[in-house]
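Cross-posting from the modeling subforum.

Setting up a comparison between two proteins and wanted a second pair of eyes on the formatting. Protein 1 (sequence, then structure tokens):
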Amino acid sequence: MSKIAVIKTGGKQYLVKEKDTLKVEKLVAKKDGKVNFDVLMTSGEDGRALKLGTPIIKDVKVEAKILDQGRAEKIRVVHYKNKTRQHKVYGHRQPFTKVEITKIG
């Protein structure tokens, strides 16, 4: 029976299992480094053995390996004011960190 957990990082919450890969907001760490996340909830995959934190569970951590640091595709942002020939266009690339969950517990 594998475990699932809800972690919080970068102002967002993610439902993860072991060997999951996900892109999270940029973390300050090197490639191939390790990082630990705080856990809000753990459970078995069938829903048994549920543990809820208030807000986090102190004795449980989720360990992850950093696979990549990068930036997402560019988006174009346009500010336009009609009738005045006024417009401004700029781009934005959001930085991210790609992690693989190695251990829950």
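Protein 2 (same layout):
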Amino acid sequence: MSVTAIGPASILDVPRPVAPPYGLLSVPGVLAAETRGRWLNGVNTFGFPVQDTWTWDPCSTGTFRVKSEESEVSTERFDAFGVGASIACGTLGLPDDFLARLEASFDAVLSKAVEKAISQGSEVTTNPTLGDTNMTVLNSGTAVTPEEGLAWLENALPGVRGIIHAVPAVVSRWGFDKLKTDGDAIYTPNGNYVAAGAGYIGAQPTGESAPGDTEAWTFVTAGLEVRLSDRQVLSSDIAEALDRSTNDVVYRVEEFVLATWDSALAQAGVLIDWSVT
């Protein structure tokens, strides 16, 4: 016996989008606490001195012993940029939690948006990027294995804790025999955090070749911090969100982001080919 059902298809919710656990915004210490402040107008950073320590013989004669007074301090301009998303649907079949769906999706991809902005640029074209001219190119830009790349990046840090920025494919090749976990963060045996983010895919440093199909530029920084503004929900009222000419409802959310780092402490990159061992 066969039964034929006639009528409109029912609506079935798909699983809620979830942010990957090891993205940039999951790294401890990256997210600053304040959501309001003058940083929305942009900031000029003043970094920490970068220099080698010196030694001397305390038994040497003379009041003035030879000591180095040279150091390098980064001073750069960073401006806030906006990150936004929208969702649209016809009034027929509009779910009650339509706006909540948009915010859930926005939460899931916010870290990717920040990763892409700092590695490939944003609409604020004057902002520094991880691959700009401040970046030290490791191994002369020649692709290395994932294991070699990790060694290059960690050795580029001048004795301070840093963050390694890598695409998920590279991190998966490193594996957890070389990485450790701390909640939603991962770090190397040397204690440097790793941000595994899809936003880094396709990054191409200034003056360097585009990565091949199995290659990715991987970066290391120090002193990186991200500030997020309070979230703005535009047209949250259904009367404002409804376009009466089309019967479509459009909601929008926006946040402003300021991402800063100390290029004098560490800003280096290496090309990694994850297909080789």
